[in-house]
């Protein structure tokens, strides 16, 4: 098959882009992740996508006449519409996407990497240089979307995809994702997804007493399996992951192995430290010998089984190598979020560190995750447990209510479920939610669905194992929430 040619000037002829990519032996384009100083309005030309059914070659072109001619003359009869938007000429932040053709492969190919183009033309059989197809960006920008390249070794063809549905469709038919190759503009601005869910796991200390920890494993697998339907973005655990330590650390091993389900799925999470997750609690639940306060701060075993590398959204920690006091960030609902993981009955130094974190992230909606905050009746706990440092009331007064962007506080430790609102010094409403069931037949999980457009959140406590929701007042919906934007 001959490659496509038209009589239009080179400046227009170059406006083609096929699902090209390098052969697998070629290096990928190095894509930066900082926003380019580009004029997004320049990325306004439709890139038409046509496919030739006879050999699955793709044609991407800015020239609508060429697309039409390719269908009638060269057999590119499958019209996939507009793939994305690009620029017809160079500009700030834009780079040329080169168009080349291989007579032996009967394939059009596009690359933003000039070195890749040169190598393919010299060594890869792409002997025809069709100049610049269009202009795109090597770096991300808020108005752009990543363009992924897929290859099919059987067909010896390449193709582009920008949406998750397109990527899934290609992957399901044997195409291999070669990663992001450049950034272009979507045909129309993608709708903002304003709804998402995060999960809160209460005390699981009784779930790791046997091998396997069936209820814990079942819960985590259910969260992963329902990640898409829930639009689940983050998982919190409010502490007491285990019940006590033993010489073989078996409860930590069980919890760690179960959590590999989240690791494998790439689902971000964080575990708060409960008193049972420390050296303060010995087998049977009794206090361990020695200084009980020092034991409470000994979380060596926990951190050995849950090293910082497992927490993929981690932003920073108070003490090196310890997850006890840490912060984690993610984006969802078109807003930024920060999860502050705070130790039980916190030390003044940890509270002071947390103040610096919140002060440095004023535009993030803050979720505080700690083991003890509300008691079973819904009041803020006044005690430090007798062997901690500062009480939850101290933490609330010195930290939580002082920052305008704090929205949630989640805790466990005692009682079953409770809900309390307080007003911060800046007038913000602080939603405090206790979830602390110690049941032996279920795997209760709190689900919190946020809608940033409607300014609402709703929550329920659900047991995946029994397919039942708690009917104890733990299910409710809140409106008129003022999210940080």
From TrEMBL:
One of its GO terms (molecular function) is hydrolase activity. It comes from the Bacteria. Residues 47-184 form the DUF5648 domain. Residues 197-414 form the Calcineurin-like phosphoesterase domain. PANTHER family: METALLOPHOSPHOESTERASE, CALCINEURIN SUPERFAMILY, SECRETED PROTEIN. This is Metallophosphoesterase. It comes from Myxococcus xanthus (strain DK1622).
């Amino acid at each position: 098959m001959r490659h496509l040619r038209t009589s239009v000037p080179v400046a227009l002829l170059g406006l083609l882009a096929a699902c090209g990519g390098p052969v697998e032996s070629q290096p990928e384009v190095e894509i930066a992740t900082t926003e380019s100083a580009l004029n997004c309005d320049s990325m306004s030309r439709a890139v038409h996508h046509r496919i030739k059914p006879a050999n699955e070659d793709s044609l991407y072109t800015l020239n609508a006449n060429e697309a039409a001619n390719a269908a009638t003359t060269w057999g590119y009869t499958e019209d996939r519409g507009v793939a994305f938007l690009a620029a017809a000429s160079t500009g700030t932040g834009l780079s040329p996407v080169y168009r080349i053709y291989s007579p032996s492969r009967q394939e059009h190919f596009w690359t933003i990497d000039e070195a890749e183009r040169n190598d393919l033309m010299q060594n890869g059989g792409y002997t025809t240089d069709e100049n610049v197809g269009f202009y795109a960006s090597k770096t991300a920008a808020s108005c752009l979307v990543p363009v992924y390249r897929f290859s099919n070794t059987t067909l010896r063809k390449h193709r582009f995809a920008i949406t998750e549905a397109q990527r899934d469709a290609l992957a399901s038919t044997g195409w291999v994702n070669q990663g992001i190759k450049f950034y272009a503009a979507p045909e129309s601005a993608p709708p903002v997804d304003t709804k998402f869910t995060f999960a809160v796991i209460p005390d699981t200390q009784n779930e790791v007493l046997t091998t396997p920890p069936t209820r814990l494993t079942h819960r985590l697998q259910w969260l992963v399996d329902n990640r898409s339907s829930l639009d689940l973005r983050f998982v919190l655990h409010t502490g007491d992951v285990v019940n006590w330590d033993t010489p073989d650390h078996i409860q930590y091993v069980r919890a760690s192995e179960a959590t590999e389900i989240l690791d494998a799925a790439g689902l971000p999470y964080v575990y708060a430290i409960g008193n049972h997750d420390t050296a303060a609690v010995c087998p049977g639940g009794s206090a361990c010998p020695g200084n009980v306060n020092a034991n409470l701060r000994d979380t060596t075993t926990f951190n050995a089984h849950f090293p910082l590398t497992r927490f993929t959204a981690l932003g920073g920690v108070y003490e090196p190598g310890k997850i006890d006091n840490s912060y984690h960030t993610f984006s969802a609902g078109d807003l930024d979020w920060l999860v502050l993981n705070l130790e039980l009955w916190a030390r003044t130094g940890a509270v002071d560190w947390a103040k610096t974190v919140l002060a440095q992230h004023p535009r993030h909606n803050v979720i505080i995750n700690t083991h003890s905050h509300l008691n079973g009746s819904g009041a803020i706990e006044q005690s430090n447990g007798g062997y901690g440092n500062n009480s939850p009331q101290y933490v609330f007064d010195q930290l939580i209510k002082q920052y305008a962007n704090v929205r949630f506080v989640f805790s466990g430790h005692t009682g079953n479920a409770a809900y309390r609102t307080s007003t911060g010094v800046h007038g913000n409403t602080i939603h405090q939610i206790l979830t602390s069931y110690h049941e032996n037949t279920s795997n209760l999980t709190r689900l919190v669905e946020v809608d940033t457009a409607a300014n609402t959140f709703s929550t329920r406590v659900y047991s995946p194992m029994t397919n039942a929701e708690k009917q104890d007042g733990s299910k409710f919906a809140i409106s008129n929430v003022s999210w940080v934007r």
